[in-house]
Amino acid sequence: MRLFLFNALLQNNEYFIQKWEEKKNSENQLEKYKAKQFIEIITKAKPLENFDMNLFFKLVKKMTVYEEAKVIVTLLDGTEVECQIERKGLELYPSL
After folding, report:
1. Which DSSP string do the residues of 6-42 spell out, in sequence order?
2. 80-86 and 60-66 strand pairing
3. Is the terminal CB of the chain with fewer CB neighbours within 10 Å at N or C?
4. How far is the C-alpha of 88 from the C-alpha of 16, rounded, in Å?
5. How many domains are contained in the chain?
6. Which structural domain range is residue 59 located in?
7. Which residue would you say has higher pLDDT here, 94 or 57?
8. With 80 as the cut, is the pLDDT of residue 12 above it?
9. Chain-centroid distance, C-alpha 36
10. CA 76 – CA 60 distance, rounded (Å)
């Protein structure tokens, strides 16, 4: 699931980069720092074939698992991403 999450972030990078660009104007210094860091990671990244633990811990704060194969992934910048686990992969639904 972790590979699918990161690769799904890459596939939807325009949405996430726009969100992080807005946070770069925040008065909260940590929020600004994380937004810049996330943009740098996503713009330089290529789809993963193997799990990268360091990358995972640079992005993910927590994962909340619900029944019905639903997982909410909270990134370190506060962004929440809803994931539906399926037999053949993972669908990604950014929370608004």
Report:
1. HHHHHHTHHHHHHHHHHHTT-S-HHHHHHHHHHHHHH
2. unpaired
3. C
4. 24
5. 1
6. 2-94
7. 57
8. yes
9. 14
10. 6
